[in-house]
Amino acid sequence: MKAFILDRYGKNESLRAGEVPEPELRDDEVLVQVHAAGVNLLDVKIRSGAFKLILPYRLPLVLGHDVAGVVVRVGPRVRQFKTGDEVYARLDDSRIGSFAEFVAVKEESLAIKPANLTMEQAASIPLVGLTAWQALVESARLQKGQKVFIQAGSGGVGTFAIQLAKHLGATVATTTGPTNVGWVKGLGADVVIDYRQNDFEKILSDYDVVLHSQDGKTLGKSLKVLKPGGQLISISGPPDPAFAESIQAPWLVKQVIRLLSGGVRRNAKRLHVDYSFLFMKANGSQLRQITPLIESGAICPVVDRVFPFASTNDALAYVESGRAKGKVVIKLR
After folding, report:
1. Three-state DSSP class for 230?
2. Quick one: pLDDT band at residue 75, thresholds 50, 70, 90?
3. Rounded CA separation 87/251 (Å)
4. Residue 145 near residue 122 (C-beta atoms within 8 A)
5. How far apart (Å, rounded) are the C-alpha atoms in residues 328 and 315?
6. Farthest CA pair distance, the chain
């Protein structure tokens, strides 16, 4: 089957268009014909080698974490899906590879595609949707009337998280560039800060939750906008010891992670707030909870650009540029 393949790590490496064997189907997996694949900053970071310590892939590797497509075969232990089903998923870290014509997906990571979405729209949802869900619903337990600061409101995670937080009844603040202020307000943000003109830490205070997705400098400022007992959940790091335990990291990796996050954890403790790192996981059950929110119109997908499969490297470059409003998708069929 046709695929885009990573042969070696490197910031400027391009994926190679080539042929790879069709994935072998395990008993609890579903073979999906890929119609569309979401492109994420995670793909860019894996290509560069940024996650070699915690995600030790063997190269060559087919990238791609988001998929929407049609079931063409099921393993003997699969009960929830059948041939012909239109599905979507965030692939498990051990089984990524949606930049290809077919991909094998664990049954427990898969969900029926929202009926009102195209394949391209559906492929834009899983990783950002599950990230927002696991941060705001599972970890923060965000409640009606609370205040949440969601950074980078025009990005993939930001556009979804704003809509989810508003659905939960929270007051939402976010940051974006000057040309996107009105557009982000249209997604539901109550307070929109033009990061080029204003410092968010001088405007925001007494927030219950921060969803952090930016750099270390922004992380330090973000801790200060929380009320005592507030939570900062970071999807950009640094990883914390709880994460190292969850992935059963080797002893040396655990020590490195402990050192990397030591400063922010001490700062959070001094301010009487909580810091945690979220590396989202594939979860079909949570996707099935997200689906009715999409079908009801409570949350709408935001797709910036759709690239043809042949332009996969261009799609990655566009995501890496940081210019995308919402998600970038590759169309295979």
Report:
1. strand
2. very high
3. 39
4. no
5. 7
6. 58
pLDDT in tens, 238-250: 999 999 998 888 9
| Unique residue bearing structure tokens 């405007």 | 203
Asked if 210 contacts 221 with a C-beta cutoff of 8 angstroms, the reply is no
Structure letter (DSSP) for residue 134: I
| DSSP H or E segment with residue 87 | strand 86-90
What span, in angstroms and rounded, lies between the C-alpha atoms of 160 and 121?
13
Cβ atoms of residues 257 and 244 within 8 Å: yes
Q: Residue 199 phi/psi, 5° resolution?
A: -95, 120
Q: What are phi and psi of 191, to 5 degrees?
A: -125, 120
Q: What mean pLDDT is predicted for residues 291-308?
A: 98
CA 303 vs. chain centroid, Å, equals 14
| pLDDT of 56 | 85
Residue (of 86, 95, 77) closest to 34 by Cα position: 86
Question: Over 90: is that where the pLDDT of 53 sits?
Answer: no
Q: Which of 175, 180, 221 is nearest to 202 (CA)?
A: 221
Could you read off the pLDDT of 99-116 as tens digits, one per residue?
Answer: 999 999 999 999 999 999
Asked if pLDDT for residue 70 goes beyond 90, the answer is yes
Structure tokens at 51: 């996650």
d(CA 88, CA 316): 20
* DSSP secondary structure of 22-61: PPPPPTTEEEEEEEEEEE-HHHHHHHHTTTTTTS-PPSSE
Q: What angle do CA 210, 182, 300 make, to 5 degrees?
A: 70
- Looking at residue 188, the DSSP 8-state letter turns out to be T
